[in-house]
Design brief:
76% of the residues lie in helices and 0% in strands. By secondary structure, the protein is mainly α. It has one domain. The longest helix is centred in the N-terminal third of the chain and has 35 residues. The radius of gyration is 22 Å and the shape is elongated.
């Protein structure tokens, strides 16, 4: 079977396709880890604010909604900017793609949904008032 690929001249194209797919998955993984880091940083910076809100009687669901809205809005801005750049760069990729449009809507929607889902999960995981990571009021309040 390896002889069939090399004799037809398809082997180099197949290797390039596999490497491109692998690098694409690595890039997507790095983007997800980066989103998690940004959401973690933003929520960590707001821990005192969250503590004050909770101490003043804010409902846990309202605080979670605030954190989710903040994370999703950051990710949405990033996804929109990324899509504009990708659409602008799409014609440059035309020669590397075989049988796929460089502006394939399914790919764009799938990547956007994956990144927004990752942001949603990161926001929930980094929520300091959540059941998975309980933090006392004394730890959230600023030092007097």
């Amino acid at each position: 079977m390896a002889d069939a690929f090399s004799s037809n001249g398809l082997f180099p194209f197949r290797i390039v396709a596999m490497l491109g797919g692998a690098f694409g998955l690595i890039a997507l993984s790095l983007a997800i880890v980066g989103l998690y880091g940004v959401v973690s940083f933003v929520v960590g910076r707001r821990t005192q604010e969250i503590g004050i809100r909770m101490a003043l009687g804010a409902q846990r669901s309202n605080v979670l909604r605030m954190i989710l809205a903040n994370g999703i809005s950051l990710a949405t801005v990033g996804v929109v900017i990324g899509m504009v750049v990708a659409l602008a760069a799409a014609p440059l990729m035309r020669s590397l793609l075989n049988g796929v449009s460089p502006r394939d809507p399914l790919t764009f929607v799938a990547v956007a949904l994956i990144l927004l889902t990752a942001t949603f999960v990161a926001s929930i995981l980094m929520w300091p008032c959540g059941a998975s990571k309980p933090v006392g009021f004394a730890e959230r309040l600023p030092a007097a």
